[in-house]
Specification:
6-stranded mixed sheet; alpha/beta
Length: 601
């Protein structure tokens, strides 16, 4: 269907692709991957006829229907549903003589609602929607338009996880040729059946999804040994979690998620970024176990309450993921805690000494265009000297020259990295992250996931990025039917829950499912006791981990004392070993007691 022969493609003076060949066919869902700047978007533009090759051919059958996500909307006064309908030739040409004409509007409405729009919004003009929602409208238009070839450039940006799951299902049923550019590895794994890699100015086709591509290429490329030590360090960190908790019921699902992450990280350096990132969170300057308590909270706005009777406690080291469709109140809950702007009633208690780091979806648009990375980091921590600022920025992929450039011309990814850097520098106790990976490349996403596991504060995360959620989150909360409820399950369980809902009877199904998932009144009464126990379990697990590390060090010292024949040291270290083992036994017994108490609630 798509035949690329001896293609040479350039962007200005830079040659992106040189004498490359590729053939793709109908029925293939293809991921197009490669480092930033290698020519992925330029290849899309070539297929669309928006630029021209230096040499060679890019051929499609003359009757091929192409659909793609447009980046701009020319007429923002147009109604949303009308905008989508006009993408279909039968509607645009007013073919009222065809039976298909009369099913187009209900199909367009259903598509838009699956993408998160409300029924009452479908007749609104496009100018009333934010940039992110306008991009959803463009995605709807691309999906609604009949096509043989579908080109999707970062389709999951601006989507919530519920909509990403729906889009995955839609793409699995698509019968044409789809080519997808995405930094969302879980999305690519779930929908693609082959991968085209742009590297060294060549197009190389691999069978299988993104993870299969990584494994195949890693096996072919011996140069991956250069990155082996760094990758193995990440894997060892994750494996320690799996080894400690895979047999413990409360941590079994999280251990399984870490095991999935290990499988992927085995090969992740295959398509590394041109930059090396080294993210490390600082220890908060002030520590406290209980950080936030929200009791009997009503979240929302005077004309639109969203969540009722919210009971939430946040402890240090909590890893909380918020689930729920757009508009249900995830961001409003975060703002209720941080700013109290959406807290209609209830009691909020927060330790006044703690620091909060907040990455909001619109944060990158709020940067001062005249700022530079250097000036922003210098003003965030005035104690840093010039070299320390440069060193710190280097960890986030900014070299000395880039550090002095105005952020006005930065990409979304560069702005997001800069904001994360400035947040980390404040040494927060709690991180509220609302879609932090929208603009990040794959390497930065992986590095963020790794570093968040070592963060000594609490994390509250809203994200469509399943890789990040699986890597970081230990407790999920679902916002549904105006309630915040503990979702007892993994991300896979949540996906099954969503897919099990019948779109034709969605409201009834959702209410029935939510009723089953909602805690009983007795469980609500014991909420504080449950959260306290979960926190104590986390603290016990940390103590067990520290004691195991202490025992390992004592054994090393014992071995050294034995080698030199120092009897006094042998007695001393044996006594310390006995004491540490006794403390470990006590800590493990306490962990079991806490687990039993939690299970009995």
């Amino acid at each position: 269907m798509l035949n690329i022969k001896n293609l040479t493609l350039a962007y200005g003076p830079k040659t992106l692709i040189e004498e490359a060949n590729l053939q793709l066919y109908k029925g293939q869902i293809t991921g197009l991957v490669g480092q930033n700047g290698t020519g992925k978007t330029s290849l899309f533009k070539l297929i669309l006829g928006q630029n021209h090759p230096e040499a060679g051919d890019c051929d499609l059958p003359s009757d091929t229907l192409i659909s793609y996500i447009e980046q701009e909307i020319e007429d923002v006064e147009q109604e949303l549903v009308e905008y989508v309908l006009m993408a279909h030739n039968i509607y645009a040409e007013d073919h009222t003589d065809l039976p298909e004409y009369y099913s187009l509007r209900p199909n367009a409405e259903k598509l838009l609602m699956n993408l998160g729009f409300q029924l009452e919004e479908l007749s609104k003009p496009l100018r009333e929607f934010s940039g992110g929602w306008q991009m959803r409208a463009n995605l709807a238009k691309a999906l609604f338009c009949p096509s043989d070839l579908l080109l999707l450039d970062e389709p999951t940006n601006h989507l919530d996880i519920e909509t990403v799951i729906w889009l995955e299902t839609w793409l699995k049923r698509f019968q044409g040729l789809a080519i997808i550019i995405s930094h969302d590895r879980e999305f690519l794994d779930n929908v693609t059946n082959q991968t085209v890699h742009i590297a060294n100015k060549q197009l190389t086709l691999y069978g299988g999804n993104y993870s299969t591509f990584e494994r195949t290429r890693a096996e072919q490329e011996m140069q991956q040994q250069k990155n082996a030590a760094r990758t193995q360090a990440k894997i060892a960190h994750l494996q320690s979690f799996v080894d400690r908790f895979k047999a413990k019921a409360s941590k079994a699902k999280q251990a399984q998620s870490r095991m999935k992450m290990i499988d992927k990280l085995q090969y992740s350096p295959t398509i590394s970024s041109q930059r090396n990132y080294s993210i490390e969170f600082y220890t908060p300057e002030y520590t406290s176990d209980l950080l936030v308590t929200l009791a009997d909270g009503q979240i929302g706005y005077p004309d639109k309450p969203l969540i009722n009777n919210v009971k939430l406690q946040i402890f240090a080291n909590d890893r909380i993921g918020l689930l729920g469709k757009n508009g249900k109140g995830k961001t409003s809950l975060i703002k209720a805690i941080i700013e109290q702007t959406s807290l209609l009633s209830g009691t909020l208690e927060m330790n006044p000494k703690i620091k909060i780091g907040y990455f909001a979806q619109q944060t990158i648009d709020m940067l001062n265009v005249n700022d530079t990375p250097f000036s922003l980091i210098s003003s965030t921590d005035k104690r840093l000297n010039q070299q320390e600022v440069y060193n710190f920025l280097g960890r986030f992929g900014f070299d000395a020259a880039t550090s002095k450039q105005n952020v006005e011309k930065f990409s979304g990814g560069e702005k997001a990295r800069l904001i994360l850097a400035s947040i980390i520098l404040t040494k927060p106790n709690i991180l509220f992250l609302d879609e932090p990976t929208n603009h990040l490349d794959m390497t930065m996403r992986e590095q963020l996931a790794i570093s968040l596991q070592d963060f000594e504060g609490a994390v509250i995360l809203v994200s469509h990025d399943k890789f990040l959620l699986q890597s970081v989150v230990e407790d999920f909360y679902l916002i549904e039917d105006n309630r915040l409820q503990d979702f007892k399950g993994s991300l896979d369980d949540y996906q099954d829950y969503l897919l099990a809902q019948d779109p034709q009877d969605n409201l009834a199904k959702t209410k029935a499912k939510a009723k089953d998932a909602q805690p009983s009144s007795a469980a609500v009464d014991t909420f504080k006791q449950g959260t306290k126990l979960r926190h104590e379990i986390t603290q016990a697990e940390r103590s067990i981990d520290k004691l195991n590390q202490q025992i390992e060090k004592i054994n090393v010292n014992l071995e050294q004392a034995n080698q030199v024949g120092d009897s006094n040291k042998l007695i001393e270290w044996n006594n310390k070993l006995d004491k540490a083992r006794a403390e470990l036994s006590t800590a493990e017994e306490q962990w079991l007691i806490l687990q039993e108490q939690l299970a009995a609630l």
